[in-house]
Amino acid sequence: MSGAIAIAVSGGVDSLVSAYLLKKQQRDVFGIHFLTGFETSTDPPSGDIEALGRQLDLRVVVVDLKAPFKTMVVDYFTAAYQNGETPNPCLVCNPMIKFGALLDEARRLGASRLATGHYARVEGGQGRRYRLFRGVDETKDQSYFLSRLTQDQLARACFPLGTLTKAEVKALAAANGLHPLTRQESQDVCFIRETGYADFLVRTTGVSPQPGDIVDTAGNRVGAHSGLHQYTVGQRRGINCPASRAYYVVRIDTRRNRLVVGFKDDLVADSCRVKGVNWIAGVPDGPVSADTRIRYRHRAVPATVSPVGLDGAVVRFDRPQAAVTPGQGAVFYRGDEVLGGGWIER
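Predicted structure:
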């Protein structure tokens, strides 16, 4: 695919080195930086982002994506918590904002592809399906967050860091005099920096906390909560109910405004249902063996994944897993390849 490549520039070392590598290949490259409307004092100002490009003789364009970011990412985040689910904003932001609205802006500016500093790899094209793979650095691999990219989006995606380790990226920056504007690592929830999730939901999105009962798995009242938005399945802290063993959040009952708690054994599940599956490798003809990751920090575990219709699946783990959390992403792997991913249902 010919034409210019736009590199999403954040101010961090990953996007800076990605831009350096693209420029080194003598490609037609320009930088693009987007505003979310949730920037804080710790974020580089737009003027500094533009100045960053001068390190590489790189033109950087700043685009305003405040409206789509609020609608597609922040409103989704709020609605998920109100529905008793635990959201994963990056799984929404990548297809809807970075490879959605931002890619559209990049193409309007003349780019045919969008590069980012993600640690992942894409292969395919020339009449074949595009395939998504883990980055070679297992500790930084971000393929999980890219599992909802469509074939059209993967066709226009470029990940220069996919074959590098974080240590190699830092070494490249140092050896070539590249100075990022921030040394902060990217966060799972980039729009919440100075407050916790609960405070953000109340102060910024207008969530109104509703006190209610805390009950055990048998329905016995064991305490009171001050708002379900403060909890997620598997959480231990903040329950504050005396018991012989530590309580964990087992379920969030929004219909009756109850927090259901139990002991660690109560968190274990041998299966789950997944909806809205994006099958990157194509819909399987039947059950497949796949390593399944049920949250970003979770090490993928062996499971049997049975497709249901075009975008559903039932996952049966070889060994029961703890804290299988509604609203989080379940991503399926065969070796290093991402087969697809969807949303864990209640």
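Summary: The chain has three domains: 4-175, 209-262, 268-344.
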